[in-house]
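2024-03-11 09:14:02 INFO receiving multi-entity request
2024-03-11 09:14:02 INFO entity count = two
2024-03-11 09:14:03 INFO echoing inputs for audit
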Amino acid sequence: MSSIKTTVPYKMYLEENEMPDKWYNVRADMPVKPAPLVNPATGEAMTAEQLEGVFCKELVDQELDNASRYVEIPEPIRDYYKMYRPSPLVRAYKLEEALGTPAHIYYKFEGNNTSGSHKLNSALAQAYYAKKQGLVGVTTETGAGQWGTALSMACAFVGLDCKVFMVKCSYEQKPFRREVMRTYGASVTPSPSMTTNVGRALNARFPNSTGSLGTAISEAVEVAVTTPGYRYVLGSVLNQVLLHQSIIGMETFVACQKYGIEPDMIIGCAGGGSNLGGLIAPFMGQKLRGEKDYRIIAVEPASCPSFTKGVYAYDFCDTGNICPLAKMYTLGSSFIPSANHAGGLRFHGMSPILSQLYHDGFMEARAVEQTAVFEAATQFARTEGILPAPESSHAIRAAIDEALECKKQNIHKNILFGLTGTGYFDLVAYQQYNDGTMIDRIPTDEEIKAGIATLPVINK
Amino acid sequence: MSSIKTTVPYKMYLEENEMPDKWYNVRADMPVKPAPLVNPATGEAMTAEQLEGVFCKELVDQELDNASRYVEIPEPIRDYYKMYRPSPLVRAYKLEEALGTPAHIYYKFEGNNTSGSHKLNSALAQAYYAKKQGLVGVTTETGAGQWGTALSMACAFVGLDCKVFMVKCSYEQKPFRREVMRTYGASVTPSPSMTTNVGRALNARFPNSTGSLGTAISEAVEVAVTTPGYRYVLGSVLNQVLLHQSIIGMETFVACQKYGIEPDMIIGCAGGGSNLGGLIAPFMGQKLRGEKDYRIIAVEPASCPSFTKGVYAYDFCDTGNICPLAKMYTLGSSFIPSANHAGGLRFHGMSPILSQLYHDGFMEARAVEQTAVFEAATQFARTEGILPAPESSHAIRAAIDEALECKKQNIHKNILFGLTGTGYFDLVAYQQYNDGTMIDRIPTDEEIKAGIATLPVINK
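2024-03-11 09:21:47 INFO inference complete, emitting structure
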């Protein structure tokens, strides 16, 4: 219980007037731009007009804008951001002390809002543009439930209807997530449902299906394109989402300048890539322009290893194959991670922006197993206090491993990681870990091959 | 979605170096001091020596200190506070807009830590003093689970064993609360248990008992006084707890000065009184010294109305009648609120400090029914974003009612309330509200009389 000599505050907040008023579009700095979304019927790049049948107009513009480095954040969105942002940049003094490492560990904590994660940053932007366009409502899917919760909140704020398709196993295992969404006024339907063609077909073929993110996406898109006044919104993967999430990186960048922090490495968990893409945006910009060098590390679950075991190819984003194709690191749209896998990060593909950056050697990736992830989560909770989300704990695992490597080599490094959210709705998984019944389940080579065999013919 | 003209930031944080380094002991300003704890066997005031069998030594000193206005916060406790404090003082711009009220609404939000409430403020202090005294561990009870979670976190931080007796119906209805405590290393036992004399006797007499806070207290005290190296700690009611919770009021006081805010009324929910007592401490000090006048409003559940329906008398704090007697507003130690009542605020008594202040006319009290509370909670969630705890939502109800009264009279007031925590573990209750199955259940006059009939003979 001795006192710790501090050099920066435990929690570094920006003042409201220091908050960024622009998003950072890292595509402007990329030597090779991310590959465009492609129409599976024609093999041609999707046009703005085609995309506007699915997405809101201004979001389509953002999706296709590879040139503007900075994008102004509309004032009403900044007002909403002020309700829960800036998020704190935290120095993990107590974790450093427990590890006995010479490294300094910093984390940007996005969990202090009711969605429990960073997802609200893009949900607010997407809901705002939908309302501005005069829409009645939006549809989406949710797996672990963070995105659905975030979108429900955003729709309550702006006054939009919100229809959420929730992966059936999550719907049943996480009734509380569902209830939060209902409290914000959203309707929540377990997927596969009997309310869409995709859902009915899948239920007929696999009567006991517990659902997948890919199927829920198909259902949500189907409802959006067949219901007047509705559009579809997505919580990760897309370029527009990474743009909105750059608020994380922009705030971190300003805080690092304000407090004189120079990160040596930046670590984030990676499912669809929204958090990592957002956190690194301005830093990666510096790196791409040759102004600074940072190690940038994506951490993914060994049970859904799109970067480390997938291929870089065009693939469907959904199981029903009704969405455009995206070029990305993918395990195949038919790949479903083991039911033993807790939490999110279970999408078969990866953000096209991050995929291109990884392909071009600007970042690293590693896969970690979930018992090791929960071990890190527990150590973090007991020292830093915050009970982390399983997703975020992938980044904690890597940060601790790097800090221990610094200890071994007796060198100082500044480690920065993204703590995307809290684990308050993931206690079933924590219970498995506490009871010693959690197991790791890594896909076999055959399972990886079977997933990749379903890639669309456009790659052939 | 128009922009709101702001005069202060949405969220007002103090800088780390502006954080208070002293607790505020409102007893120093009270014209009539709170009545002392009394030994039920002798009818005499408990001595420090007697209390030290149950509580840590330095906490006993704080319990008995009616004179020191300021109490220095030890540096290691301030370091722990820096991990999750200062908490924000928030201007409820969006709620004001939704209500169309000329009033300004401010709330001090204590939910941004994993315990989900203000309880951590006292848990850290009590764990620190226990560790400093060289103890092995502490015991406690928990009902809704916030206090147990907070103490588990605090014990993980300082390295103390933590034994929690959890009211059996909560233990069964809230397995996730239990799992958070286990993640922080605590042992959690459903109460009444078969591990204590009190528990065994109660189980023999009422085999289907689902427990009560009073019984869980008795069990925790029994284990503390019969296990070497252990002491008992309590999360509310006691003078020492209100002292620690004054960190809420001290921060609020500094923030109000910094941002030029003059509250007209201060509102808090009241179960045992820790949050309200902490929030008002320095403001009540001004009021007692005649420097300022504030309306101070305690809001309690109509199903457990100790202020508004109880009597001011000496009573047991626990059902097993093994604790000292406290003079307080009480419904009798045998009183158990209806099982329909959601959330906490179910203790039969009230802080002796607040009881004396209420008795002497320095504050108001009102009781509200829970469907009205959840209506306010839902409106708050949809406008301000935060999903509030049921307990905290009692204060929201009163704040909204006061703001609507301002609208009706077309007058401006500054309304300040304490938002003690989040409702992430209370979704069963939200589901009842969303489904329309939540009911109000107010004790009958006969039930009130029956509870009060069990008051100890010392009052006769």
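2024-03-11 09:21:48 INFO post-check: Residues 148 and 157 of chain A are 14 Å apart (CA to CA).
2024-03-11 09:21:48 INFO post-check: Residues 37-71+119-232 of chain A form a domain with the Rossmann fold fold (CATH 3.40.50.1100).
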